[in-house]
Write a structure and sequence with these properties.
Dihydrodipicolinate Reductase, domain 2; 11 strands; 7-stranded parallel beta sheet; alpha/beta; 16 helices; 439 residues
């Protein structure tokens, strides 16, 4: 049964500015990639907004338009890029240093990339112990730093003639911290900014600045950036979409593909051992135990939520789940993940699965950055404020509404995402109920 009406989504007119705190490997791979696609030099493989379709009605209707033609998605030929970084390198120099993309490709876009220069960053080495750089803001307080970021945002918008803005955190993983009293309300958080509270991280300063100015904010790292009460309060107050956290790229992507299959077939699981080697800046940062702890928490939560051991104690009640990340400089951005999975079949007989994923971390992350930027902009124009659970598809540790557990099953996440888009158009939702109805 079709819905009576959709959602009034404002048109994607004018230019969209995409702001990136952290302009390292992921950000420059994303920027260069979008420019390459715009120039017809490559295809946007991995991007749902650019290459995905969406089925409408029954299978017999054979109606599956491109997603970007179905809903109002900002065209990539009318976006501008900006961001902050602790190093002075422009986007071309940073991309060459990252070593992800071939310089023969980068050289074809050199002038455009060189024009994208990072603004001075908010940085505190307490939060990222393995990095240091010269392109850093100085301020009298953390509120002063937040106000400087707000000025950066306003200036970028004016200089680039942007009609709308969106921000996607692409910076390094900060050390693990739980929310404190400072994070409990907006009033206490703003007091903490004025008093330069040690509890407030640089990523939270960026998030605060964006939310104050009505800029949608997506958190691509496991940092405590917007998933605390004060940030959620501000997002609701200013009617701004927020989403996070931690891009789901390599090993965790494989877990959210494989684990639903084990559960669907009711195969037991004794243990899942995961180890990674990578040599990029992310690997260097994660060599610090406190930063690794942030990543470990987002990685470890996936299996419990998918397998629901409280409902299936005989199958998943006693899993040994281990995650390791090792910094190995020769590997660069080409991360390698090994998984040893001990599963249990009929009558308790053991079996094993081995997975060796030689992935390119930033190549997997770049299309996620694009989709999140465009979908968050869509959400803003659709009046969808606060936590955007429908974007769980992209996250290792999806934010949820208070009191709800996150959905980690990749296939349920994709259905939720597409059904949300169908809902905004007033079209019937696809439930796969049966051939005589929707299937």
């Amino acid at each position: 049964m079709a819905l009576k009406k959709g959602v009034d989504v404002k048109p994607a007119t004018g230019k969209l500015g995409i702001l990136l705190p952290g302009m390292g490997a992921v950000a420059t791979t994303f920027i260069a990639g979008v420019i390459a696609v715009r120039r017809g030099l490559a295809k946007p493989i991995g991007s749902l907004t650019q290459m995905g379709t969406i089925r409408l009605g029954k299978r017999t209707d054979a109606t599956s338009p491109m997603l970007k033609d179905y809903v109002s998605i900002a065209p990539i030929d009318n976006v501008a890029f900006g961001g902050w970084d602790i190093f002075h390198d422009d986007a071309y120099a940073a991309a060459v240093r990252a070593g992800v993309l071939d310089t023969r490709l980068l050289d074809q876009m050199k002038d455009e990339l060189e024009a994208i220069k990072p603004m001075p960053a908010v940085f505190e080495q307490t939060w990222v112990k393995k990095l240091n750089g010269p392109n850093v803001k100085k301020g009298t307080s953390k509120m002063d730093l937040a106000e400087q970021v707000m000025e950066d945002i306003k200036k970028f918008k004016a200089t680039n003639n942007c009609d709308r803005l969106v921000a996607v955190w692409c910076g390094s993983t900060e050390v693990y911290r739980k929310p404190t009293e400072t994070h409990s309300t907006l009033a206490k958080f703003e007091e903490g900014l004025r008093n330069s509270s040690d509890d407030i991280a640089p990523s939270q300063i960026y998030a605060y600045a964006c939310l104050k100015l009505g800029v949608p904010y997506a958190n691509g790292a496991p940092n405590l950036a917007v998933d605390f009460p004060a940030a959620i309060e501000l997002a609701r107050k200013n009617q701004v979409p927020i989403s996070g956290k931690d891009f789901k790229t390599g090993q965790t992507l494989m877990k959210t593909i494989l684990a639903p299959g084990f559960k669907a077939r009711l195969l037991g699981l004794q243990g899942w051992y995961s180890t990674n080697i990578l040599g990029n800046r992310d690997g260097e940062v994660l060599d610090d135990p406190e930063s690794f702890k942030s990543k470990e928490v987002t990685k470890l939560g996936v299996l419990d939520h998918i397998l629901q051991p409280h409902l299936y104690p005989d199958l998943y009640g006693h899993i040994d789940h281990v995650v390791r990340i090792n910094y190995y400089p020769p590997r660069g951005d080409n991360k390698e993940g090994w998984d040893n999975i001990d599963i249990v079949g009929w009558l308790g007989y053991p079996m094993q699965i081995k997975v060796n994923f030689l992935c390119r971390d930033s190549i997997l992350a770049a299309p996620i950055v694009l989709d999140l930027a465009l979908f968050m902009d869509f959400a803003s124009r659709a009046g969808m404020a606060g936590v955007q659970e429908w974007l769980s598809f992209y996250w290792k540790s999806p934010m949820t509404q208070e009191g709800l557990y996150p959905e980690h099953d990749l296939f349920i996440q994709l259905m939720k995402l597409k059904n949300t888009l169908r809902y905004t158009k007033g079209d019937e939702l696809i439930t796969h109920l049966g051939a005589e109805y929707y299937d």
